[in-house]
Design goal:
P-loop_NTPase, N-acetylglucosamine 6-O-sulfotransferase activity, single chain, two-stranded parallel sheet, 42% helix, three-stranded mixed sheet, Sulfotransferase_dom
């Protein structure tokens, strides 16, 4: 699995980055051309990769980490940097290559790749309740300052067509948030929430396109909600593997179940750390962390995509801190 920390600049750069990622001799050539001396240790979150932390790329590895989390400290201690040619050769042996990327702001940028007869690309689009995303972004805002500013600069190049909905609170009417292009400077909190608005707009555009089921996307796109993965992890994983024409092993299904049934939901430590967590509790953590005004602001920016994905707004149901009321509707997975 290759993690690509993609940040938006404009549609042309998105399209060019995606094309390079798939059309070079290997998916890693783009790294080599950017920096000839790059090694496996320069890849984003390399220490979480089973391939980089097990044989043959890491001869000293004590475990293959099959259906388990990699011991990142052991990997960092025992696995030397490897030449990118060696990494690319190992990737080429795999039956399937997974590329995880974020901030693809327009699904159309993948059309050229998806329709390329030389490639067999399928897209799994993972989404989450924007209020939970806002809670996470606010908690991690210091670590996302650069990313938030890049997202907002993207919005300046692609101004939205309509203003945000005017939000309401139980106490009356509030002013709608100012246009996103005016929010590039200011507090990290404002930038974090405004950036989320841009992300929601991009998601809404992509989802509307997927719902139209264009011929080039048909059979190649699957929409999955994070909440459905948490509630029924084995079923969700089986559905995703079936979409890809693969079969998950029992060990992998059990590992997935354990990953969302941990003892905590990320209150302490590195917010970007990969680990087992109490994901069901995390579903409703935003109700405790966000103020009423922050909830209203997020719903103003993200209302359209929330409606499309089946997330209830606070106005539609009682907002209970204990999370005893679901704030999302049940739905099946969507396939283009």
């Amino acid at each position: 699995m290759l993690l690509v920390p993609d940040t938006p600049c404009n549609k042309d750069s998105e399209r060019a980055s995606a094309r390079r990622l798939f059309h070079e001799n290997t998916v890693l050539d783009m790294y080599k051309k950017a920096e000839p001396n790059i090694t496996s240790r320069d890849l984003f979150h390399w220490e979480n990769s089973r391939a980089l932390c097990s044989r043959p790329l890491c001869e000293q590895a004590a475990d293959s980490w099959h259906a388990s989390l990699v011991n990142t400290k052991e990997c960092e201690r025992t696995c030397p940097p490897r030449d990118m040619n060696a990494v690319g050769s190992e990737c080429a042996k795999r039956a399937a290559v997974v590329i995880k990327t974020v901030r693809i702001m327009d699904l159309n940028v993948l059309k050229t790749l998806i329709t390329d007869p030389r490639l067999k690309i399928k897209v799994i689009h993972l989404v989450r309740d924007p209020r939970a995303v806002a809670s996470s972004r606010l908690k991690s805002k210091e670590g996302l300052i650069r990313e938030s500013l890049q997202v907002l600069r993207y919005s300046n190049l692609h101004p939205r067509q309509d203003e945000a909905e005017v939000p309401r609170t139980p106490g009356g009417l509030m002013h709608a948030p100012p246009p996103l292009r005016h929010r590039v400077r200011g507090s990290t909190r404002l930038n974090a929430l405004a950036a989320l608005g841009v992300i929601c707009e991009g998601q809404h555009r992509s989802l509307e396109l997927a719902l139209q089921q264009p011929e080039w996307l048909r059979g190649r796109y699957m929409l999955v909600r994070y909440e459905d993965v948490v509630r029924r992890p084995k079923l969700a994983l089986s559905a995703m593997y079936n979409f890809l024409g693969l079969t998950p092993t029992p060990d992998l299904l059990n590992f997935t179940f354990a990953m969302v049934h941990g003892q905590h939901y990320g209150d302490e430590g590195d917010p970007f750390q990969v680990g087992s967590l109490d994901a069901r509790a995390a579903l409703y953590a935003w109700q405790e962390r966000l103020s009423q005004d922050e909830v209203v602001e997020v719903e103003a920016y993200c209302g359209k995509v929330m409606d499309l994905l089946g997330y209830r707004r606070v106005d539609d149901t009682a907002r209970l801190p204990d999370g005893s009321h679901n704030l999302f509707f049940g739905r099946d997975y969507f396939y283009a």
